[in-house]
Write a structure and sequence with these properties.
Blueprint: E1 6-11, H1 16-30, E2 35-39, E3 52-59, H2 71-77, E4 90-98, H3 107-118, E5 122-123, E6 128-131, H4 137-154, E7 174-179, E8 196-205, E9 215-221, E10 233-236, H5 242-251, E11 261-266, H6 282-288, H7 298-306, H8 311-321, H9 326-334, H10 340-346, H11 357-360, E12 367-370, E13 381-387, E14 390-391, E15 399-400, H12 402-407, E16 415-421, E17 435-438, H13 444-456, E18 462-468, H14 471-474, H15 478-486, E19 490-496, H16 506-512, H17 514-523, E20 527-532, H18 537-553, H19 557-569, E21 573-577
Helix pairs in contact: 1-4, 7-8, 16-18, 17-18, 18-19
């Protein structure tokens, strides 16, 4: 009789929870357990009536929302008709990936833990919480939690086979077969990743040439059948430049078979194949699938140590992969943002076999951007505001974001597919009640979509607090805001933080117009939408509004924060930060 597996189920929005689940999967396999890892929405809920041992890893998105790939599973758990003893035969553990700069820190994992208990499941290990603001990020909290998980697991489950020795590697998850040489192949790869075909119409810098940051207004032409709402998200799928791909192939000694056709199938029945370009050659596989400019995770170092014949390299690689070496890993990889390609160039003895490519190497993930214009299907144009990421670390070469590197060189007329995902905007924005938008920098993008939609509905009581460094350098979409202001559609208040000796931010402007804020929220039933960086801005805005409410109501500051909680419950306060 086949041993029942441990299910490692994840809900992941940007890939962090998925990556941690894959690492846990490998660790448990090495200990001799039978393990299956899946997104929660791919788990067969009919199995919930069976005895189960599950480990859940999930992130929180939006205002305490569940990630997209676990919403179906979560919706099932919330059904009122489910018996309260449904999960009596489940033993489980939960780890949450979160960020303490968000108000609802780790909300999704807490709600999941609570609901599993309500349905009778029994936790065999205390819930773990990872924090992006921790010096070692979510990674540090997860590594610490895994030590407790391993001990707790040993009390409830016996491995089905002997543990692997340190020198042994687990079998590859995918069967990757190369077939022949195809130098005559002329067919271009089909960009089928994403369901919506698009054509690049506009890719223009909208910050001053002398400004430190390059912000692009990106316009895409879409089929007229495509629609979206304020708050929805566009997903772009970048690819690697040819020069970097050739360097990567040489590092791993894959260049000799770069033109071979490749056929990939999963070795794990429950696991689907990843997205792959077509035709699939080794070159196309690296160009469109492998994230060669991303920061390598500890999983890469774990595999790399198995595929080097240099003892000094092996020792160092194992350090980076170990829990004890987290600080070294942070100093070598995370802090300087050293890329996978740069790491392979330094550890030149590492030659990962091609069949382990999808296990050992990170894959390119879609990049999510808030849509910046209202849907007009007769025009069929979608607009985004994208700040290109480029900065200096202790390394000689400037660091670039993966999507930024790609987007910087895209030319007008190029075709590629995208996705549009539903957003989490819960404000009743179509009602004729005042709206206060707060959006510094590119945080103003979803607010532009929202305000355009309201103006189209002839709702003119809109307020915008916009912030940037200098009016002459990075006043994004100035023409739009001044047009709406002059047309009577918008009250506009700008905070140009570096245009005077004392810095002025959006929270200061909010305090400057405190009477209007109080009247709008307390007397007129207004709404607040805060969008932008997840640093100190969101909390500073909340503090400013809470202070205004308490001052004018003659109440304590705690009552001001209670009022904000009331607004959230009434769907009158929304925060979208990243």
């Amino acid at each position: 009789m086949e041993t029942k597996p441990i299910y490692v189920l994840y809900g992941s929005e940007t890939g962090t929870a998925e990556e941690l689940s894959e690492r846990l999967y490998r660790n448990l396999i090495r200990l001799g357990y039978r393990v299956v890892t899946l997104p929660m929405d791919e788990f067969d809920t009919q199995k919930l009536i069976e005895p189960l041992l599950c480990v859940f890893v999930c992130s929180t998105t939006g205002q305490g929302e569940m990630p997209l790939n676990m919403r179906k599973f979560w919706k099932f758990l919330l059904k009122k008709r489910l018996p309260m003893n449904l999960l009596d035969d489940m033993q489980y553990a939960v780890f949450g990936c979160g960020d303490t700069s968000y108000v609802r820190y780790n909300w999704a994992s807490k709600k999941l833990d609570s609901r599993l208990r309500q349905l009778g499941a029994q936790s065999f290990c205390p819930r773990g919480e990872g924090d992006e603001q921790h010096p070692q990020g979510v990674e540090g909290g997860f590594a610490f939690w895994c030590t407790h998980l391993s001990s707790a697991l040993a009390t409830v489950k016996t491995p089905s086979q002997p543990a692997l020795r340190d020198s042994e590697n687990i079998p590859p998850s995918y069967s990757i077969i190369r077939s022949g040489n195809t130098h005559e192949l002329t067919e271009q790869p089909q960009h089928t990743r994403g369901a919506i075909p698009s054509t690049l119409q506009e890719n223009n810098r909208i910050t001053a040439d002398k400004h430190w940051q390059d912000v692009r207004k990106v316009g895409l032409s879409l089929p007229s059948s495509v629609s979206w709402k304020p708050g929805d998200i566009a997903v772009l799928y970048p690819w690697n430049d040819d020069e970097s791909v050739h360097s990567f192939l040489r590092c791993l000694k894959w260049d000799s078979f770069a033109d071979d056709l490749v056929f990939i199938t999963s070795n794990i029945p429950e696991r689907k194949n990843p997205w792959l370009p077509n035709p699939l050659t080794v070159f196309n596989f690296v160009k469109y699938v492998i994230s060669i400019h991303s920061v390598p995770n500890r999983t890469f170092f774990e595999y790399a140590a198995h595929f080097t014949n240099d003892d000094l390299h092996k020792e160092r690689l194992l350090e980076f992969a170990s829990l004890e070496g987290l600080d070294d890993y942070y100093d070598y990889v995370t802090r300087p943002r050293r890329t996978l390609l740069e790491t392979l160039q330094e550890f030149h003895s590492v030659h990962i076999p091609f069949e382990y490519a999808l296990d050992a190497l990170p894959v390119i993930r879609g990049r999510q951007y808030s849509i910046a214009n209202r849907c007009n299907q007769s025009e069929g144009k979608l607009e985004l505001l994208i700040a290109l990421v480029k900065y200096q670390t202790i390394l000689k070469e400037p660091r670039q974001g993966i999507c930024s590197r790609w987007l910087a060189h895209l030319h007008q007329g190029i075709h590629f597919n995208i996705e549009i995902l539903p957003g989490f905007l819960s404000l009743p924005y179509t009602l004729d009640r005042p709206l206060i938008g707060v959006g510094p920098g590119t945080g103003v993008a979803p607010l532009r979509c929202l305000i355009q939609e309201r103006v189209n509905l002839e709702i003119k009581n809109n307020v915008l607090f916009f912030g940037c460094r200098k009016e002459s350098m990075d006043y994004l979409l100035r023409e739009d805001w001044e047009y709406h202001k002059n047309a009577g559609n918008l009250q506009l208040y700008c905070a140009f933080s570096r245009d005077q000796e004392k810095k002025v931010y959006v929270q200061h402007k909010i305090q400057e117009y405190e009477e209007m804020i109080y009247h709008t929220l307390r007397e007129e039933g207004g709404m607040v939408c805060v969008c932008g960086s997840s640093g100190s801005m969101p909390n500073a805005v909340r503090d400013a509004i809470a202070g205004i409410i308490s001052k004018f109501a003659g109440e304590s500051i705690s009552e001001g924060y209670e009022f904000l909680k009331k607004l959230e419950k009434e769907r009158r306060f929304f925060q979208e930060t990243w």
